[in-house]
Design a protein that fits this description.
six-stranded parallel β-sheet, nine-stranded mixed β-sheet, single chain, mainly beta
């Protein structure tokens, strides 16, 4: 199995190939590193230069280049993560508002940073260069360049400072 992964994904570093499962029909870009006990489901598309920590569950998703997903994250089916995103440890994304209902997929835009232990609910768009504080429950779209935190996550700051009150959402 270790040689199989190295053959299937040249240029990808698996920290312990015996402890990683990569299903069929997966693309992983060169320079990506994958930690132990990580499962990458069929249909996943992962860009170049990414880091996938240990104990991650990566479903049928699209992940851009230079994305860092830390240990113990659950990235559910249909999620799109654009380039240069950081996702802290223990982040969970959801895609099902009602069990058995229509799926609605989160999107995390370029350069966003998601603090560890956060939960991103179905259909939420995290704007470009936005920051989500650790442990936040994100129930609504996050505008570009803003910081949100809490449960539920609320707007706390704009990129470069300033008062967020009265600002129209750009998402």
């Amino acid at each position: 199995m270790p040689q199989e992964l190295e053959h299937r994904f040249p240029g990808v570093r698996f920290y312990n190939p015996r402890l990683v499962e990569v299903q069929d029909d997966v693309q992983i870009g060169a320079g990506t590193r994958v930690g132990s006990f990580t499962l990458i489901h069929a249909g996943a598309r992962i860009g170049a230069g990414c880091t996938l920590g240990s104990h991650c569950n990566i479903h049928r998703v699209t992940i851009g280049d230079r994305v860092s997903i830390q240990t113990a994250c659950h990235i559910t089916m249909g999620v799109v993560i654009e380039d240069d995103v950081f996702i802290g440890p223990g982040v969970i994304t959801l895609n099902d508002k009602q069990m058995g209902g229509e799926l609605s997929f989160p999107r995390i835009c370029r350069g966003a940073r998601v603090g560890g232990g956060s939960v991103i609910l179905p259909g939420v768009v995290v704007g470009a260069n936005a920051t989500i504080g650790a442990g936040s429950i994100v129930t609504r779209d996050v505008p570009d360049g803003t910081t949100v935190l809490g449960n539920p996550a609320r707007l706390r700051a704009l990129a470069g400072g300033g008062d967020p009150r009265g600002r129209a959402c750009s998402v």
